[in-house]
Design brief:
By secondary structure, the protein is of the alpha/beta class. It folds into two domains: 184 residues, 3-Layer(aba) Sandwich (Rossmann fold), CATH 3.40.50.2000; 169 residues, Glycogen Phosphorylase B (Rossmann fold, 3-Layer(aba) Sandwich). The protein contains 14 helices and twelve strands. The chain has a six-stranded parallel sheet with strand order 2-1-3-4-5-6, with helices on both faces. Strand 5, helix 6 and strand 6 form a beta-alpha-beta unit. Helix 1 crosses helix 14. The protein is globular, with a radius of gyration of 22 Å.
Length: 375
């Protein structure tokens, strides 16, 4: 646990998604050290700042996903919201609030308003005291759209979810629970169902996959996200042999059934910078087949991840991956990767990054006050 000296810390988390375990995992060490984590729904609502100042707290605003500001409503509405938000951020920063930005993606998934998003990202890059990225290649990945000042950038790898979910059952029991064949080779496409995850491509590829490996089955499960509705998903999957669609929220107690039933996780994502599902799979020793993207950087030569090169048909890459995993033992490597990114370690890392940027901000403020007195 990271220890914080007085005065205490208030960290505003924008946005805060209670159904996304990433934030609770990352903030856990700060909370244990006595920090107050406040969910922020609106960057223009400064009530939480006034309350923190009244208590005498140090204040950090941690900006995560940008889509709630830049992608809601018409482009005119989004542009106006971005302008107001950036003005609010600048005002907070001038009054001593420390700003941290975590770059989760190059751009929001399925972004429709590019100009407002770029304006917001550039303002965050300029105004943040600290910028966290999931891996070393992230700065180059965002470069075509905006630049990250390297003196502000630190790595905060995606944590695994070891210990968060029950893991007590066998593959046989899991498959019986889900009603799938014990001898089939099962691929799993898991998580919120959105277009960028390549669901349509995966379903289309299954015809060619089953022509070479008839015992292969694809399970698709998760809640419906932006860009889809139930009718569209049912149309995409209707009549395709070897594809099972299960729409709905997967509770914590149910995750193990899907993970243990599968032989491999499939991530045919069109784009992305990192993936919680990838590290979720690792925690269950489940190997991953993924399309090449910014997300796959660093995994090309990994024993438990098979990266499908750009230009290779998805079906061929899937069959290659299944054959590779069948001839090797990727489970141990996956579990080692999950252990290296265990939640407690990543939480301590983030807490140390917060402590460091607070120290720099305090030193800078002391210096400015000394200069002011001297003048």
């Amino acid at each position: 646990m990271t220890e914080f000296v007085q005065p205490p810390l208030t960290l505003g988390a924008f946005p805060y998604y209670p159904n996304n375990p990433w934030q609770d995992l990352i903030y856990s060490d700060l909370r244990e050290a006595g920090a107050r984590v406040v969910p922020i729904a609106d960057l223009e609502d400064l009530t939480w700042v006034d309350e923190a100042r009244h208590r005498g707290d140090r204040i950090v605003l941690h900006v995560n996903w940008t889509a709630p500001v830049s992608q809601i409503g018409s482009i005119a509405e989004a542009s106006d919201r971005v302008a107001r938000a950036t003005s609010s951020l600048a005002a907070l920063h001038r009054t001593g609030v420390v700003l941290i930005w975590t770059v989760h993606n190059v751009l929001p998934h399925d972004a429709s308003h590019l100009l407002p998003e770029l304006a917001l990202c550039r303002a965050l890059a300029d105004g943040s005291d600290l910028i966290t990225v999931p891996h070393a290649a992230a700065s180059a990945a965002v470069q075509p759209w905006y630049s990250l000042p390297q003196e502000k950038v630190v790595e905060l790898p995606q944590p695994s979810y070891v210990g968060l979910y029950p893991d007590e059952i066998t593959q046989e029991a899991a498959r019986e629970r889900l009603g799938v064949g014990g001898s089939e080779r099962i691929m799993l496409l898991f998580g919120t169902l959105r277009p960028y995850k390549g669901i349509e491509e995966a379903v289309a590829a299954m015809r060619a996959v089953r022509a070479q490996a008839p015992d292969t089955r694809l399970l698709i499960t998760g809640e419906i996200g932006p860009g889809y509705d139930i009718a569209t998903l049912e149309r995409i999957t209707a009549g395709v042999d070897g594809v099972d669609l299960h729409v709905g929220y997967v509770g914590a107690s149910e995750v193990q059934y899907w993970m243990r039933a599968a032989d491999a996780m499939l991530l045919p994502y069109r784009a992305g910078l990192n993936s919680g599902v990838l590290l979720l799979a690792a925690g269950f020793g489940l190997p991953v087949i993924m399309s090449e993207s910014d997300m796959s950087l660093g995994y090309t030569d990994t024993p438990w991840v098979h990266v499908i090169p750009r230009g290779l048909p998805l079906s061929e890459g899937v069959v290659d991956g299944l054959r590779r995993f069948a001839a090797s033992d990727p489970q141990g490597a996956a579990l080692e990767a999950a252990k290296a990114a265990e939640p407690a370690r990543m939480s301590k890392l983030f807490a140390s990054q917060v402590r460091s940027v607070l120290g720099r901000a305090s030193d800078g403020m002391s210096g400015r006050q000394s200069q002011s007195r001297a003048s």
